[in-house]
Amino acid sequence: MKADSKRLRRERKTVRVMIEIYCRKNHKNPGGLCVECQELLRYSEKKVDNCVFGSEKPTCAKCPIHCYKSDMREKIRAVMKFSGPRMVYLHPVLAFYHLLDSKRQPPKLPKSKKQKI
Questions:
Q1: Do 79 and 18 meet the contact criterion of CB atoms below 8 Å apart?
Q2: Quick check: 31 and 93 in contact, CB under 8 A?
Q3: b/e for 72-99, b at 16 or more Cβ within 10 A?
Q4: Separation of alpha carbons 97 and 116, rounded Å
Q5: Nearest 5°: phi and psi at 66?
Q6: What is the DSSP code (8-state) at residue 4?
Q7: Cβ contact 37:48 at 8 Å
Q8: Measured torsion, CA atoms of residues 78, 42, 84, 8, in degrees rounded to the nearest 10
Q9: In whole angstroms, what is the distance from residue 115 CA to residue 117 CA?
Q10: Average pLDDT per run of 10 along the chain, which is 117 residues long?
């Protein structure tokens, strides 16, 4: 892990929980996450860990940089579309903080990163 803060730990936990909800209801793998969902979780954690914004990271929907590959972006969108409404009942605290985080304005892109995109 590169940068770590309470905010980033919560972000990783929220994504993990959403993937778990999705996998449990859609893939019905009795041993936890299926291989596809494990891959998506590792990929999303890597993206959070390497985000140029660090602890100021906005939610992905508001981010000016879309760093997910298109196939992974579609997978995570499906997970969030399915799990998002269920989070309110299953994990209300995480859902509340995610809602607050979604209201944050994305920070300006660091000048050193603008050239690399």
A1: yes
A2: no
A3: eeebbeebbeebeeebeeebeebbebbe
A4: 31
A5: -105, 100
A6: -
A7: no
A8: -140
A9: 6
A10: 75 94 90 93 93 82 85 94 94 92 77 52
**What is d(CA 37, CA 75) in angstroms, rounded to the nearest whole number?**
9
Q: Which amino acid is at 98?
A: H
How far from the centroid of its chain's Cα atoms is residue 33's Cα?
16
The residue written with tokens 């990929």 in the block is 43
Place of tokens 């605290």: 93
Q: In terms of C-beta density within 10 A (0-12 exposed, 13-18 middle, 19 or more buried), how is residue 66 classed?
A: exposed
CA nearest to 58, candidates 71, 48, 68: 48
| DSSP designation for 55 | G
Q: Provide the whole-model pTM.
A: 0.84
If DSSP codes are grouped into helix, strand and coil, which group holds residue 106? coil
User: d(Cα 59, Cα 56) in Å, to the nearest integer?
Assistant: 10
13-16-21-25 Cα dihedral, nearest 10 degrees: -170
